[in-house]
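Lecture 7 notes: from sequence to structure.
We start with the chain below.
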Amino acid sequence: MFGSSVSPFGIDSKRIQTVTKNPRKRETSVNNEQPSGQHAVPLEGEAIEELRVGVVGIGWAGQQHLKAYDSLPGVRIVSLAGMERDLRDSLQAEYSIPNGFADWEEMLEHGGLDAISVAVPTFLHAPIAVAALERGLHVLSEKPIARNATEGQAMVDAARKAGRVLDVAFNHRRRGDIQALKKVIDGGSLGRAYHAKASWLRRSGIPTLGSWFTNPELAGGGPLADIGVHALDYALHLLGEPKVVAVSAATHSELGPQGRGGGSQYSALASKHAFEVEDFASAFLRLEGGGTLLIEASWATYRETDDLLDFTVYGTDGGAELRVQGAPFPPVGQLRVFTEKDGEGADYVPPVVPGRAHDAVIEDFVTAVRGGEQVWGEHDGSLALYRAQIIDACYLSAREQREVRL
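Predicted C-alpha cells for the same chain:
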C-alpha cells in the first residue's frame, strides 16, 4: 500500500523519510533471517520466545526505545532505520543491531520482525504504522498518535483488521508522582472531583529539529499537539477517563513569528519554514457528569525560566496539587494533598518514588505483545485516538471561536 514514495496521507515519505525528533557503541552481529510474523507469546511453563523488534527513528525518543528494549530479556533489536548515517552506525554498534536502513520502507521489506517502534516526526506515524500493521507487525508509536484523528483512525482500523497491538507512548502518566496522585484520587479521599487543570508551560522552548515542529502539515499543530497532549492524557488518566462532551479553546501565535521564543536548546530562527502554528494554547473541557478541565500548553510565554508540568484537582472532600518545576527532568515533583479531618486541616505529602517513563512504556508494550490474541484487542490505539479527537476539536474551536461538542 505504501510502496510508492508518495503515501495516501499526502507526504513524500521517500524524500523526507526518518527525520529525527539527539546522540550514543557494541559490535554488530550476523543477521539471522527468519520469516516475519512469528510472535513472542510464551506458553505456560515454556521459556520466553525471542521477540524481534525494529526501531524507526534515531533521535532522543528512538534512543529511549533502544535503551529500554536492550534491557529486557528475550527481546532482540534486529533492525534500525534513520537517515543520519554516522549516528545510525554508532547506535547499531552500541546495541549490536545487525540491520541498518536509511529508509523505513526498506526495513519493513527486509522482514524478520515481530514488532516495531515508531519514533519519528508526527507526519510519518500513520504511514509507517499502517504499513507495519498490514504486514502483521505489532506497533508502538510515539505520541501523538498522528497529525489528526483521521490518520489516527486509519491506524486503529489497521490494528483491528490485523489483530495486532497498537500502543502509543504516553510516558508522563508513568511518572511516580502522577501514579501516587492517581492512588490518592482513586482512594476516594478527595470525594468527587469537579474541576481540574493541567499544563505544560515553557518560556523559551520552540523546537526546531529540522523545523517540522512549526509546520502544521508535518506536525499537525504546535504545543497543544506536542506537549499539551501529554497534559491532556495524564489529566484524563488521573480523573478516571471521563468522557469529554464539549471544548472551547483558543490559540495564540505571538512570539514565534517574531523569531522569539527560542533558547539554548531551541531556536525559533533556525527554521526552513514559516512559523505557522500556535506558541500558546488553552482549552476548557466540559466533562460528562458536570466536571470541568482546563488545559494549557506553551512553547513560548513570558514566565519563569524553568518549564512547568503541573496538575491541580478540586474535589468535594479535598484537593491536590502537583508541580514539576524544570519538567520533565526532575524524577519527582512537589505533590501535596489538601483535606480535613474533624473540621481541621489535614494536609499531607504522599510518599512518591520515581517512575520509569519510557522503560515502563516499552515493558507494557512487550507484555501486551506476549499476552497473545486474548489481550491484543485491548491495545488497539483507541485511547490515543480519543486524545486526537479532543485535540482536533480544540483546534476547530480555536479557528471558529466557538464551543465544539464531541
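Points to note: The chain is about 30% helix and 20% strand. Residues 1-46 have pLDDT under 50 and may be disordered.
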